[in-house]
Structure formats: structure tokens, C-alpha cells
Amino acid sequence: MSQKKAVVLVSGGLDSTTVLAIARSEGYACYSISFDYGQRHRSELLAAERTAKVLGAVEHKVIKLDLRAIGGSALTDDSIAVPEEETGGIPVTYVPARNTVFLSIALGWAEVLGCDDIFIGVNAVDFSGYPDCRPEYIAAYEVMANLATRAGAEGNKLHIRTPLIHLSKADIIKQGVALGVDYGLTVSCYQANDQGEACGKCDSCRLRKQGFVQAGIADPTHYQSA
């Protein structure tokens, strides 16, 4: 019997790297996919390539998109500053329709590969308030995926797997460490420098730092010097 396949969305960050390790531990042959979408924190793409290799992805693709063409986010528009203090509501680091765009491309690759499973590291507990990280969004997208594809029409049910969606950042870290993830290879910062060093101030850095403290695990993140 051939090994089951999965497409895994990887950004090079803590959450998606943990998801790749989980998929591998569940026996999947993992095909990882990242997106060069014009994000300001481009060192994450190198981190995604590193972690995909270390965690044994069968193949790693980087898809080039230009979300700077529409802007609307601090991650794709240099005129919008990345906030370094907590803000209410949906933050300016939200990228319009990003997960919908990414999942749609991953869905196409899954059809080509004959995969029934797509893994994504969305989280509805320790997250920044992004609407496309909510369980109801994922459930709705899975319904759409099965309506919109040949695979779904022919009865091969497609699943969007979200193993982190109800976990705290601390629990995600604990699970990743148990699976042998080296978080020193990952980049989560919204404004990391070219060496992948984190600012330590943005929302993503704050959540990551807090997660390691709450997990009681030493933080291996490489931070920029003061």
C-alpha cells in the first residue's frame, strides 16, 4: 500500500513547522508549499526551505505571488508600519484574503498529487485576531473545496487539517519539541532582518516569547541586537 500524501502549508514560522512535524508523525508523505507574496519578512522563505528539508518533505515548492499589487497590510505595504504595541480588533498585519489565496493554490496542487489532506497551521487561541484563522472559516473552506474540485465531485473527500487550531502557543511548542522540532531554525517575526533575526517587539514576537515562557522551554529565537 502506498504512503498517504499531504500538502502542508509552511511559512518558516513556529506554527507551520510544528504542523509539518505533526503530519510527518502521522505517517504522511509531506509536500510542503510556501508563498513568496511580497512580504516584508522574506527571511521566512529561507526558514521554510530549511525546515522542510530537515523535516523530510518529499518536495518543497515556493509559489511566487504579488500581493503587494493590492496592498492593504503592513506586511505588503512599506508605508504601513508594523505595530509594536498591542492593538484592538483586526491588526494592520492582516493580509487581505491571504489564507484563501494560499489554500486555493495548495488545493490545486493536492488535486495534481492525488492528496486528500491539506495541513495548515491556523490557530484560534494565541493568534492576532485574523478572521481566516477561525474554525468556521476552515469548515466553510472545506465545503467549498469539495464542491469546486474534480476530486470532490468524484467522491474523494478533501480535508483541511488544522491540528493547532485549539492549542495555546505553549502547547504547540511542547508538542513540537516532543516531535524533535528545532525552533531555532524558524522565523516568526513580522519584521525580521535578512539574517532572520527577530525584532522581539511585534505581535508575532510577543506571542512566541510568551509561548516559550509558559511552556517552560528555553527560547532559541535569534533576536536582533539592541
From TrEMBL:
Establish whether keyword Zinc is in the entry. yes
A molecular function (GO) held by this record is: zinc ion binding
Q: Cofactor note, please?
A: Binds 1 zinc ion per subunit.
CDD domains, sorted: QueC-like
An example GO biological process term is: tRNA queuosine(34) biosynthetic process
Amino-acid positions noted as binding Zn(2+) in the UniProt annotation, renumbered to this chain: C189, C199, C202, C205
The keyword ATP-binding is assigned to this record: yes
Entry's family note = Belongs to the QueC family.
The name this protein carries in UniProt is: 7-cyano-7-deazaguanine synthase
Q: What lineage does the source organism belong to?
A: Bacteria, Pseudomonadati, Pseudomonadota, Gammaproteobacteria, Cellvibrionales
